[in-house]
Amino acid sequence: MSGLDLIDISKRFGQVSAVDSVTLSVPHGTFVCLLGPSGCGKTTLLRMIAGLEEPSSGELRMDGDRLNDIPAHRRDFGMVFQSLALFPHLSVGENIAYPLRIRGRSAAEQAARVKDLLDLVHLPGVADRAISQLSGGQRQRVAIARALAVSPRLFLLDEPLSALDAKLREAMQVELRQLQQQLGITTIVVTHDQREAMSMSDLIVVMSKGRIQQMAKPVDMYRRPANAFVADFLGQANLIRARAGVGGAAISGGVIPGLALPSGGGTLISVRPEDIAFVAGADGPVRARVGFIRDMGASVEFHLDAGEDRIVAVATPQARPDCRVGEEVSLSIPAEACVVFGEGEG
Ligand code: ATP
User: Fold this and answer.
1) What is the Rg, in whole angstroms, of the alpha carbon atoms belonging to the chain?
2) What is 135-194 written as a DSSP string?
3) Beta strands at 300-306 and 309-315: parallel, antiparallel or unpaired
4) Among 17, 71, 139, 176, which residue has the least CB neighbours within 10 Å?
5) How close is the Cα of 41 to the center of ligand 1, in Å?
6) Which residues line ligand 1 (CB under 6 A)?
């Protein structure tokens, strides 16, 4: 037995089912992102792991030992909230040393640990500064250092980077991941940002309406989403209605050669924008009209009307197809790039 186990955990607030029968294992040293839209229950799940909320039913275990009855302050977990919750009247060093002070550690030990932690989060020499003298990114690092002060068994973060601007946020994603790898600390991060989840995690857990929709490595989840919700939430997805046709799958704008579908009713398929290819000439398997072109510098997005479907295709500037808004184009959708969902999963 190793790591954290959640076994059939549920949480109800009156009539609201915030978390519904979640079972999840987090092995030691793993970085897990709980990802989902607002209200899906990810914060409630993290708070139950931290001991700040009591499950309505189910069991939490750490290394095989039941956690449910152990109060938050005795779980030895480090936590960083969105608000950071730093003490504004204490210096940087006093903030970081706080968990050590309340555990009665000596002044010398506190000072040495503060120095090490500030080095670790790339903020050397700021122990005596006031919190108000720090930038948002620096405060973030102080909150992380404070949460790591007592070498927690589990590191829990709730939307830790959401207050930062886009550029700093991306830089901190890399830093947080490097720090986690350096320390080998088991980490669970709540986020609603799919890019953040993709770029940091060993394992992503996508939640919707209190339930786990899929749990997988980022690339596996991106390539093989379990259902339309996951396909759409993690990156961009073209969700297209298709049915069995001659030599492949028939879609509104043409055919996907070689994609075998069960005969009968329509099926929903998902295909990523970068997998859609432009074909020279007018006789490609899918015909579409260019509705909108969105040039983002590093990539170009084409919004295409293929029969009744609006399909998004992405190209690099180097491989940019020569077409304009209003023109007809030919496309090819490779069968192997399509993920086929059952009827109920649409
Ligand atoms: P967000 O990203 O907006 O924080 P979330 O995915 O973290 O959302 P939760 O905060 O866990 O979602 O909330 C899940 C559901 O439980 C929501 O419907 C919410 O309104 C409800 N809820 C959460 N905490 C309480 C509470 N203390 N009392 C009543 N309902 C609550």
Assistant:
1) 24
2) -HHHHHHHHHHHHHTT--SEEEEESTTTTS-HHHHHHHHHHHHHHHHHHT--EEEEES-H
3) antiparallel
4) 71
5) 6
6) 13, 16, 18, 36, 38-44, 192
pLDDT above 60 for 344: no
Please identify, by atom number, the ligand 1 atom nearest to the C-alpha of residue 45.
11
Q: Domain residues for 254?
A: 237-341
Task: Please tell me the residue having the least CA distance from ligand 1 atom 25.
Answer: 13
195 CA distance to ligand 1 middle (Å)? 22
Give 291-308 pLDDT, tens digit per residue.
999 999 999 999 999 999
Ligand 1 atom 27: residue of nearest CA:
13
Pick the residue whose CA is nearest to atom 21 on ligand 1.
Answer: 18
| Contact between residue 230 and residue 224 where contact means Cβ atoms under 8 Å apart | no
Token pair for 265: 């009713």
Q: How far apart are CA 229 and CA 346, in angstroms?
A: 8
CA distance 142 to 36: 27
CA distance 301 to 274: 9
Question: pLDDT tens, 242-295?
Answer: 999 988 999 999 999 999 998 877 899 999 999 999 998 878 899 999 999 999
- Residue 217 falls within a domain, yes or no? yes
pLDDT tens per residue across span 168-215:
888 889 988 998 999 899 999 999 999 999 999 999 999 999 999 999
Number of domains in the chain: 2
Same domain, 146 and 200: yes
What is the Å distance from ligand 1's center to 325 Cα? 43
